[in-house]
Amino acid sequence: MIENLIGKRYANALSGSVPDTAGLNAVLDSLKxxxxxxxxxxxxxxxxxxxxxxxxxKGALIRDLAGRLxxxxxxxxxxxxxxxxxxxxxxxxxxxxFERVVDQRQNQVRAxxxxxxxxxxxxxxxxxxxxxxxLGKTVLIESQVDESLIGGVxxxxxxxVVDATMKNRLAILKRKIETExxx
Length: 183
Known about the structure:
This protein has 8 helices and 4 strands. By secondary structure, it is α+β, with helices and mostly antiparallel strands. The chain folds into 2 domains: 2-104, Peroxidase, domain 1; 108-182. The chain starts with a helix and ends with a helix.
C-alpha cells in the first residue's frame, strides 16, 4: 500500500517535470529500459540493495547506465534521487504508474489482446479504431498469441476483460452440463 503511494508520487513528480507530451514517451521508454535492465540482470538489484555499497558508487553506476541507455536528464535525476532515498528497487512500480500518467495526459488507453493466432495489422487497426470510437480515446493495442485458446480473442482494457475465446466457451458449456447433470 505504501509502495503504491510512493510510486504514484514519484510518477506524478516526474510527469510534472516533462512539460511536452512528446517528451513523455521518451521518458517512458527510458524508464522501461531501466526496468528491463533490472529484470534481466538480477545482480543490479542485489548491488542497489546492498547496504555496504556507498550511495556514491550506486550513483556512479546510475550515471553510467543512463549514458549507455541514452536516458535524458529527467530520468537520470529521478534515478539518482531514488538511490539517495533508497527507493531504486521501486522503479518498476514507478514506471507502471508513470505509464498510466502518460496515458491519461495523452488521452489514450492500452488494450491487451490475446488470440490463438497472430492478428494481422489490419485487424489490429480495426480493433483499435472501434475501441477508440467506443471509449473516446486513442487505443494502443498490445497483442499476444496463446495457442491454448483454440480460437477467438480475449480483450483486456484496464480492469475490464472480454473473453470470446473457444476455450472459455467450452469451459462455460462444461459447467452448464455439470450443473444440469447434478440436478
